[in-house]
Amino acid sequence: MLRGACIRLVGNKRREDLDISKIKRIYVPGGRVGDVVVKTPMLEALSKMNSDVKIDIGIARGVKSLVETIPYINKIIEADKKESKAKIIKIWKQMKFAIKNRGKYDLYFDFTNNPRFLHLLSLKILSPRYIVGCHRAEKFGIKKDELTLFDKYVDVKKDSHATDINMDFIKDFDIDISDRKYKLYLGLDENRFENYFDKNYVNVILNYKGSSEGRTLKQEELEYFIENLPKIDKKIKLHIMSIPSEYEKVGKLLEKLDLDRVKGLPKTETISEAAGLIKYCDMFISVDTGVVHIASVYDKPILGIYPMEEKNFKLFEPRSSKYEIVKGKEEGNNIKGFSLEESLEKFSKLYRERE
Predict the structure, then answer these.
(1) Is residue 262 part of a domain?
(2) 262 to each of 246, 256, 273, 308, how far by Cα in Å?
(3) CB neighbours (10 Å) of residue 17?
(4) Predicted confidence band at 130 (pLDDT cuts at 50, 70, 90)?
C-alpha cells in the first residue's frame, strides 16, 4: 500500500543505544488539568535523572498556574486560547512546533498510538535523540512495533491507571519509579486558604462542572445535592465550587434556596487557587474532571460521578485512599442517568468512614 510505504519512509531511523548521560533536555506533553496531575510522579522521577536535566512541558490553556511554580520545570509551552477542532489546523501547529524546536530535545514522549503519516512526519522533523511511545495502532499494514522512529515502545495494558502507564514510559531509565503519589507546588496559593473553612464543621466541596455539558450536573441535580446533603448530618457544611463565568449564576441559585449550611466558594481566577481551597476541605464531591485528581493529591475522601464506560474510569480513577463512585447509565462520555439516591448513600458511607 502506498500509504504504508510513506509511513515506513518517515517512521524509521537508525536507532542508537539509550544513553542516560546524553539526556539533558526533555519534552513532556502534559495536556489538561487531570493529565498534568497524573503525570506529576513521572515528572518528579525525571527531574532526578541527572543534575543537568531540563524538562519542558506542553499544557492546555488554564493549566499554567499549576505548573509554573514546579521547581524543576524549565519551560511551559501553553496551547492557544481556543483549540481548533479542524485537523488541518492541528497538523499545522504540530509542524510549526516541530520546525521551531528541531533538534532541541534529547527525549520526547508520545502518549498517543497514532500511526498516521503527518503525525510521524512531525516527530521526524522535531528529531529528538530518543522517542518513547506507545505501540502503534496496526493500520495500513504497519505492525505495532515496526517503526524504528521510536527508540522504546510501551505496552499499554487495558486496565492500567494513567499514572502507572506514565511510569512505564520511564521504567528503563535507571531512576526510582516507586513513588507514585501526586504532588503539586501551589506557590502563593499553597496556604492561602488555610483558615478559610470553619473547623467546627465537616467542610464538603461540591464541583458540578465537567468538561462538557454531558458531564456536568443539571440544575435540578445540583439543587438535589444542595438540599439533601446537609441533611445527612448537622455538622456538614456544603461549599459549591464554580468556574469564574458561572460564579454569579451559582450565587443567585444559593440566594434563592437560602440554606444555612450551604455557600458558594470564593471566586477563583486560576486552577491553582481552586487547588488551594481543595487542599483544606474535608471531603470532595465532583463529576469526572481534573479537580478529582487535585483532591487525590491531598488524599481527600471523594465521591466521583463518572460516565458508564469502564475504560476511562480505570484510566482516571481517583487515587485517594477512600472514595466511592457513582456511574451514569447511558453509553457515551456522559453521566446521564446516574442515581441521586445512590450518590447520597455512597456519600453517607464515606462520611461515616472518613476518620
Answers:
(1) yes
(2) 17, 12, 20, 29
(3) 7
(4) very high
